[in-house]
Structures are given as structure tokens and as C-alpha cells.
Amino acid sequence: MDAENNPGNLAVEESDIEHWLDGLGAVDGLLGRSHEDLAISGLLGAAPACVLAALFRERGGRWLVVCPELADAESLCDDLDTWQVGKVHYLPELEILPFDRKSPTREIQASIQSGLQALADGEGGFFVTTIYGLRHKVMSASTLRSARLELRTGEVIDTDEIGERLASLGYRPSGVVEMPGDMAIRGGLIDIFSPAHPLPMRLELFGDEIESIRLFEPTDQRSRDSLDRALVLPAGPLFVDDDTLLEALSRVESCTEVSDDDRTELIERLQDRLHFAGIEGLAPFFHEQVCLLEYFSPEDTVAFLAPDDLARRDEVLDDEVGRVRADRVRRGDPVPGPHELMADTAEITRLCGARRRIWLGDVVLAGNCPPPLGPPSGLRALNVKTHAQERARGDVGALLARIAVWEAAGTRAVIFCDN
Q1: Is there a contact between 32 and 65 (Cβ–Cβ < 8 Å)?
Q2: What is the DSSP letter of 358?
Q3: Each residue of 183-239: pLDDT tens digit?
Q4: Are 80 and 49 in contact (CB under 8 A)?
Q5: Contacts of residue 196, Cβ cutoff 8 Å, sequence gap at least 6
Q6: Rounded CA gap, 109 and 104, in Å?
Q7: How much is the average pLDDT of 300-314?
């Protein structure tokens, strides 16, 4: 890629223009401006990951990267992994709308809980999500800390109490523990698949004492790693103990817009403490849900990929969520208020605050879409030209010839291979 030489496209003074070089030097020119808001246009393909990696190498810390769609987020995670400059945490969207009568998959919920735990522990790196993932509220850090359970070898436990605690965290009894959120208690063995670990864990008891903790492969049941301590995270966005259950029952009792029969039926289901389909949409009844941005400190950076696409997806999301919630209300279902489960633009703007923001993509125009999804009108964008390369289609000779031309022109060529 090469930097556009038109000074009107640069967010820098004219005296700085000489520092903008061709190729990756355009990225080098951004370094040293690691505390400024930036708008960078003209980035195609994997170029956004290249820019983010270069800036992260300079600044470090924690970066929240917001993409328009699920496929964009997954592709960016792969590209960022290639540069290996910081750990990449993927916080997927739920793939169902808020207020839906269905539940998201347990794998998705586990990925989100794992990412939240990394944030709560202050881990650095990239945290990649979508505009939906940003707007859909999650369990607060304080609730996460009070809900999680730490188990250690040598600790004396009560299996009945452990079973009740796991149920309060959303774990489901299973004959074979193979998915996040599964648990099994069989005599002196307790199997748990916590989002905090890549594999399920097996606790071996000697009497009431934890003798060993091992991660095991669910397909062949073979042990992989031994642990001195293990962390059990909530399997989803709910923590149902006595206090949060009373709060939820109180909220349902106060829902005057639903019939007595519907209210009574829901109260009975909640009192059974079973995580039925769609209960995640009632999470604000149990405890506060917060915007993902509340996990980030003022020193962290927020990057918005493809602002125009973000704004369009944001509008569609508003329409879809409003439709689903209205349908639930017409059915007579108790549902939380829209802002209890979804952050609106005003809340996201407030939470972005003075954090450093970066907008990048193919076309980034200041003032073209509402902040914070797009850059404000007063910020001029750096236009960096990137060019998509034709596929060699297995013809290595053609690729090598093209690289020879680049090198003859003084261009450094770096080749990445995914196998």
C-alpha cells in the first residue's frame, strides 16, 4: 500500500508530510501519534489488521475492536493472530436477537464469559466483537466476580453444595461432559466444563477433599493437564442465587401488563431455578446488565471497522430488536425495558468518553455517520491506498515473478502462509 500524497487527506500538519512513506511506512507514520484519535481510509482486505497490529506494538494495552458483521469479526481475528503482537480475544454476538424466545448456543455463551473474565482480570490484547456484541449488555464485572467459583486441590467440599452452586451458574447435568456448561457428579468424581478452560475438568475426591484436578479430552476421556486450581465461570449471563431469584420474582410480580395466568406460570418456572429456553432475555430481572465498554478503562482504545457498514447494521438492529420485543409484549410475556438489555447510541457515546478512538476501513469519511461509530466532522482522514492482489491460482511461478518485480522496484515483500 502507499500513502496518498494529497495533504488535504492527512490528519497532520504540512511539515509532517515528508514523514509519510510508501508501503508500510504509511503505518509507521501513525506511530508516535499513539494517543490521538485517527481516521484511516483506503484499507482493503487484511490491511486493517496490519494497521492495528502496528499501532498496538507501539501503544500496547487493551483494544476493543468493533466490526459490522460476524464474518468481519472472525476474519479480523484470524488476521490479527497472524501478526502475533497481542493476544486476540473473540467475543461473538449471540446470533439471536435480544428478547428472543430462544437461547443462544452454549458455545457462544461460553466464549463471551471467557472474554469477560479476561477483561475482569485486566488482560491486555485485542477484544474483537460486532456492533451487536457491543450493544447487547452483559453480566457486570462485580456480578461475575461474586458468581465465579475457584476450586483448589486439597480443598474440602460438599458435593451437594457444589451441585447447587453449579446449577445457580447455569450448568446442566449431563451423562457425558463434552460441551461448555455441562456437569456430572458421580460419587468421587465431578466433571465440569467451565468457559475458563479449553477442556472439561475432572475433580477426583478422596472423601470430601479434592485430591486432583485434571483437564481431559471429552472424546477419549484421556487426561491432558493437571491443575492446582481451576476456575468455574457462569455458563451464561445469569447467576441465580437466593438474592437474585427474589429480585427476579419481584420484577415479574410488578409486570402489570401481563395476565395473572402468564405471570403465575413464569413465577413457577423461575422458582424451579431451571434455565429454560429464552431465560437469557430476562437477565436484567436477576441482576444488572452492562455495556461491554464498562469493562474497559479510560486508557484503553476503541477501534471501529468500516464505519458506514457499522451505522447501517446499527439501524437494522434497532428495527429488528424493536420488532421482537413488541411481539413479546403482544404475547403477554414479561420482558425488561429495551435499554436494560441493549445499549443505545447515547450510552455508547457516553461510555466512549475520552478514550482514544480509531476508525478504519475501505472508505472512512468524517461526519458521514453519527459518532461514535464514525469519525467527527472535524477530524480529517489519512487516505492510505491499498491494492488487492490477483490470486496466483496455484501458479507459484507467476507469484514469484510478481514478487521479483516488486523487489526490483525497492518494495519489501512479506509472504504469509496459513499452512
Answers
A1: no
A2: E
A3: 999 989 999 999 999 999 999 999 999 999 999 999 888 888 999 999 999 999 999
A4: yes
A5: 113, 114, 117, 148, 230, 231, 232, 233
A6: 7
A7: 97
